[in-house]
Write a structure and sequence with these properties.
Layout lengths: L4 E4 L15 H12 L3 E5 L8 H4 L5 E4 L4 E4 L2 E5 L4 H13 L3 E5 L4 E3 L2 H8 L6 H14 L2 E3 L10 E6 L6 H7 L3 E10 L2 E8 L4 H12 L6 E5 L5 H6 L2 E5 L4 H6 L2 E3 L6 H8 L5
Parallel strand pairs: 1-2, 1-12, 2-3, 7-8, 12-13, 13-14
Antiparallel strand pairs: 3-4, 4-5, 6-7, 6-9, 9-11, 10-11
């Protein structure tokens, strides 16, 4: 059996969104894949500090902050936070246009205090109540702190919630040289949920970096994801697999689909594609 590198998104792929507990079937499959000689990486938009509850399950490496920070066997092989100038420009133009920001540092995340209050005031519109519940869940389970506690640490990524696409026009123009806007396809009650990511990296280029470091060709990489921030890794990997619970847009890009996280999709796919017996 040829050695593979397997990349697993977390939220909606390895776990239910916002959770830190993968199903036992996935934990078993990961352990069996490593015993078979494959490398298994977390490949996530979460920052490194959010990963500690999951590392106990056994991984060879992590791709954090959508590719901005990469570790293999405890050694950093890529580290690319925003420059102070990039961070200030992004923070200023987003705030000017009323876009809510959650900044992700290596070890901590900090969110604008007004976001949940705004969502509560519009809770009955569209799917805003669902978005509010999701925000409250992840802030509790992943220890996202108020922006007033931010101490100036380097920032890798900014998660955004915008009232509408109109509020993103100026930020897109001002930041277009250095940043990409990854917008989720769901439009919750007229709001837009997405990420501002440095153009120097993405999950796809992270797979390329890990592949070179481990001297394993891209054709022997396998990626599992579910949402638009997994687009590049699904396109880059030798085999890109979308979860059944995933975005319709990502399903169209994927080479294959597997059952949802709730239906033990990771285990079923590992067996189907002969990553484990």
């Amino acid at each position: 059996m040829k050695r593979k590198i397997i990349f697993l998104d977390i939220d909606g792929t390895l776990t239910q969104p916002g959770s830190n507990e993968p199903p036992e079937s996935a934990v078993w499959a990961i352990a069996q894949a490593r015993k078979a000689g494959h490398y298994v990486f977390l490949c996530t938009g979460r920052n490194y500090g959010m990963l500690s509850p999951l590392l106990q399950y056994g991984f060879d490496g992590v791709v954090a902050s959508s590719g901005g920070y990469i570790e293999w066997q405890g050694r950093c092989i890529y580290d690319c936070p925003m420059t102070p100038q990039q961070k200030q420009a992004a923070m200023d133009v987003l705030a000017k246009n009323g876009v809510f920001r959650t900044i992700e540092c290596r070890e901590g995340s900090y969110t604008d205090e007004g976001l949940k209050e705004f969502l509560r005031s519009h809770e009955k519109e569209g799917s805003n109540s669902e978005l509010l519940r999701w925000r409250e869940q992840i802030e509790k389970s992943l220890n996202i702190l108020p922006m007033k506690q931010y101490g100036g640490q380097p920032v890798y990524k900014i998660v955004i919630v915008s009232r509408s696409s109109e509020h993103l026009k100026e930020p897109r123009q001002v930041l277009s040289e250095d940043f990409s806007f990854c917008i989720q396809e769901e439009n919750m009650g007229g709001m837009i949920n997405g990420e501002v990511v440095n153009k120097k990296f993405d999950k796809g280029r992270a797979i390329e970096r890990v592949s070179r470091e481990l001297h394993i060709p891209l054709c022997d990489t396998v990626a599992f994801g579910d949402s638009m921030n997994d687009k590049e890794m699904i396109e880059t990997a030798g085999l890109g697999i979308c979860m059944e619970n995933g975005s319709e847009a990502v399903k169209k890009l994927a080479d294959a689909m597997c059952p949802s996280v709730a239906d033990h999709g990771i285990r079923q796919a590992f067996i189907k594609y002969k990553l484990i017996s």
